[in-house]
TrEMBL record:
Taxonomic superkingdom: Bacteria
Organism: Streptomyces sp. 900105245
High-level lineage: Bacteria, Bacillati, Actinomycetota, Actinomycetes, Kitasatosporales
Spans annotated as Disordered: 126-147
Protein name as it appears in the record: YdeI/OmpD-associated family protein
Pfam (any one): OmdA
Length: 147
């Protein structure tokens, strides 16, 4: 599969705005539960994970992406999808990596989805004060070591 292109309406389900791949096109993407993909929505490139749900694939479109692409629930968008076949990973800050290793939580971190890994790293690296960063590292470790 090289790439697929289509137009679709963004839909609101529960509290999320979602982009759903038309069922007839979803079959060309395969059967994996999660698919890393490079999306172009209204001409803006987005890295996302497509989730298999109800015979099709979908992804949430958060507020920042909605603003970037100039569309929200009920709007029709032009979409191009190309599967992301590059090795997935996240740059782990040295202090977070050391804390995970000390707590024996590196394996738990590695089992998180790429999205969750990125969000955890972002929480740490976005801290403006050293004490906030340290607290967030502690929270990350705690969340991975709870029974």
């Amino acid at each position: 599969m090289s790439r697929i292109a289509f137009s679709t309406e963004l839909v609101k389900e529960r509290n999320a705005v979602r982009l759903c791949v038309p069922t007839e096109l979803a079959a060309t993407l395969g059967t994996a539960r999660l698919l890393p993909a490079l999306l172009t929505i209204n001409g803006h490139s987005i890295q996302a994970t497509l989730h298999k749900m109800g015979g099709t694939y979908m992804t949430a479109v958060n507020k920042a992406v909605q603003q970037q692409v100039g569309a929200t629930a009920g709007d029709t968008v032009s979409v191009t999808i190309q599967l992301d076949t590059e090795e997935q990973g996240v740059d782990l800050p040295e202090d977070l990596g050391a804390a995970l290793a000390d707590a024996g939580a590196q394996g738990a971190f590695d089992r998180l989805t790429l999205f969750r890994q990125r969000e955890m790293v972002k929480a740490v690296t976005s801290a403006k004060k050293p004490e906030t960063r340290a607290r967030r590292i502690g929270q990350a470790v705690d969340s991975l070591t709870r029974d």
